[in-house]
Design brief:
By secondary structure, the protein is an alpha/beta fold. The chain has eleven helices and 15 strands. The chain has helices at about 15-20, 35-50, 60-65, 85-90, 120, 175-180, 235-245, 255-260, 265-290, 315-320, 350-360, and strands at about 1-5, 55-60, 75-80, 95-100, 135, 140, 160-165, 185-190, 215-220, 230-235, 295, 305-310, 325, 330, 340-345. The strands form four sheets. A seven-stranded mixed beta sheet has the order 2-10-9-8-7-3-4, sandwiched between helices. α2 runs parallel beside α8 (about 255-260) and α3 (about 60-65) packs parallel to α4.
Length: about 375
């Protein structure tokens, strides 16, 4: 299918990266070396201007989300619409979760002037939250703390999770609005899985050290390494130690370590920025073409995907699938209604296929 559903760039990693990975195949008969693991952490640290003890290597961002319950939060707040995996990991571990659902244009700045919700407004929150279902996570309807839609984070929340840029809205929150989430006794987790697809990696907190901020990075999207599972946490050593507690020995294999080291070189970072510039150009060309068909596009958009709204999203999705075009449904994201779809940003030739199909099918 012509794929507008998955945000991975390309069908596989670039040739130079494949060659580096292939060059390590002969070493798979032995366990990874502790010295290599340390060297890779140093490479990540150098890439972001951090110390090596501020880096925790991961088998993909998904492993990082699965670690969040180890922070032993009493009440976690997840800012939506956003990727649902962090909330699912917390709920499955019995951590109470409050959803903070932003109104369009889905920006933290739109609510930054509002006060924190007092603890008394949260009420009794059980392992799956308080009353007020607003969507589904992992195929199950989940509950939300009442009164959080379009509001600020509950004061009682000692863990906050936010994406930047956010999947699926493509909103890039400002550094100032992210730091405004901090308060004593709270840890802020910023999911920057798509940050390297932003020109200049603007608004990223990856290069800044705070005792209460964790930044999560992934190699999956930009480097087309979904099948290898590579990522890392950046944060204070004390927080990383809590996340790492109880973890299996040698959680990353030789090829994962090689991939992380390879993509942290200055040459690779420069290549990722050239790709980010290409994505931005394709996105800027794609938006007016969608609007010309009468499609509502959520802006400003800064990620490698677009959130769109149409009269009957599910019908359009199925009819496009019948023409061999895959798009991502939006109604599985808390805070979005049934009229939304997410489209990966693609080059003009692929966009031509999508535009022609929609024009033929109609909205």
């Amino acid at each position: 299918m012509v794929d507008f559903a998955v945000n991975v760039q390309g069908s596989g990693p670039p040739e130079w990266l494949r060659e580096r990975l292939a060059g390590r195949l002969g070493e798979l008969g032995r366990y990874p070396d502790a010295g290599e693991e340390r060297a890779v952490r140093e490479a990540v640290a150098a890439r972001h201007g951090r110390r090596a003890d501020e880096v925790l290597l991961l088998a993909g961002a998904a492993e990082g989300f699965a670690m969040l319950p180890r922070l032993r939060s009493r009440l976690a707040a997840v800012i939506h619409p956003s990727f649902t995996e962090p909330e699912l990991a917390l709920r499955e571990a019995g951590v109470p979760v409050a959803r903070v659902v932003l109104e369009p244009p889905y920006s933290l700045e739109s609510v930054a002037g509002q006060a924190n919700i007092p603890e008394s407004a949260v009420g009794a929150v059980g392992a799956v939250g308080a009353v007020g279902a607003v969507g589904a996570v992992g195929g199950k309807a989940e509950a939300s703390v009442p009164g959080t839609r379009g509001a600020w984070v509950p004061e009682a929340a000692d863990l906050v999770v936010v994406g930047n840029p956010t999947n699926p809205t493509s909103v890039l929150h400002s550094r100032e609005s992210l730091l405004a989430l901090r308060q004593p006794g709270r840890v802020v987790v910023v999911d920057e899985a798509f940050a390297d697809a932003v020109v200049g990696e603007t608004e990223s907190l990856a290069g800044e050290s705070y005792s209460d901020v964790l930044v999560l990075r992934s190699l999956t999207k930009t480097w087309a390494l979904a099948g290898l599972r590579c990522g890392y946490f950046l944060g204070h050593p004390d927080l990383l130690a809590r996340l790492n507690q109880g973890r299996a020995h040698w959680p990353l294999g030789t090829l994962q370590l090689e991939a992380i080291a390879a993509t942290c070189t200055p040459e690779a970072v420069a290549e990722s920025q050239r790709l980010a510039e290409s994505i931005a150009a394709h996105r800027d060309a794609m938006i007016p073409r969608l609007r010309a068909l009468g499609i509502e596009v959520c802006e400003p958009a800064r990620g490698p995907f677009l959130l769109i709204r149409v009269p009957d999203a599910e019908l359009l999705r199925k009819r496009l699938a019948g023409k061999g075009i895959a798009v991502r449904r939006g109604d599985t994201f808390p805070g979005l209604e049934s009229g939304f779809l997410r489209l990966a940003v693609r080059p003009a030739a692929e966009v031509d296929v999508l535009i022609d199909a929609i024009a033929e099918l109609g909205l």
